[in-house]
Amino acid sequence: MNIVITGGSSGLGKALVELCAATADNHVVFTYCRHKDNALALTEQFNNVEAIAVDFSLTDQVESLAERLADMQVDILVNNAYAGHAQGVHFHKTAPEDFANAFNQNVIPMIKITQACIKGMRKRKFGKIINIITAYVIDVPPTGFSVYTATKAYIRQLSKSISKEYGRFNITVNCVLPDYMQTPFGQVEDFQLEQMRNAHPLKTLLKPEEVAQIVVQLMSASQQLNGVEIPINAAQHLL
């Protein structure tokens, strides 16, 4: 299987690369912008892994990646990358330009990459697209997450349209909605971590490896599973 994972050098993306690469028959291509040392370490650890440096804020790099993916036989695409930070400031203190920048650096690249992969998937009548959203789109998000959740909500809704349009080509589009994970991307203050642990039904925070296992299960699921959203939050918020 040819698997493409965006944002694969840390957190959930890294856990996914490691899990997918453990199967020798898989060829895993992942993108990274930061955490170059992690990216190089993954390519050294696994001989079936390829890392591509891509800055989603640079249009030419995104388009170059899209052209490359269009020529590849991509079986599975995991849209995991997010350019920017999850937590910001209160909505009234957020510049409108921040919403536009988040859209241009996350939604537009995701669209270009997905369109490039779908071209080949349509010809082969097979493909699986898994979009990593966030459990924060289910209920009221924490303070300061308006830009992040609005961006993810757009991708969530777009996923429904794509799944409907391309199901007849044997292409599935499913979403995973994980709760907070303690990763370099999602750093918060210690007191916030303690509050989240205390509020969690299991009294423990979600680990990237746990989410990666569920994403990999989706990779091998029947094509009948299409257009679904899987929240991973110990039933704290239900669809």
Write structural notes for this entry:
The protein has helices at residues 11-21, 36-45, 59-70, 96-124, 146-166, 190-199, 208-219, and strands spanning 2-5, 27-32, 49-53, 76-79, 127-132, 171-178, 229-232. The chain has 239 residues and is an alpha/beta fold. It has a single domain, classed as Rossmann fold (3-Layer(aba) Sandwich), CATH 3.40.50.720. The chain has a 7-stranded parallel β-sheet, sandwiched between helices.
Could you outline the blueprint of secondary structure elements for this entry?
Blueprint: E1 2-5, H1 11-21, E2 27-32, H2 36-45, E3 49-53, H3 59-70, E4 76-79, H4 96-124, E5 127-132, H5 146-166, E6 171-178, H6 190-199, H7 208-219, E7 229-232
Parallel strand pairs: 1-2, 1-4, 2-3, 4-5, 5-6, 6-7
Question: Could you provide a short overview of the structure?
Answer:
The protein is 44% helix and 15% strand. The protein is α/β, with parallel strands linked by helices.
The total of beta strands comes to: 7
CATH-defined topology: Rossmann fold
Q: Which runs of at least 5 residues are low in confidence (pLDDT < 50)?
A: none
> Secondary-structure element order, as H and E?
EHEHEHEHEHEHHE
Name the features.
239 residues; alpha/beta; Rossmann fold
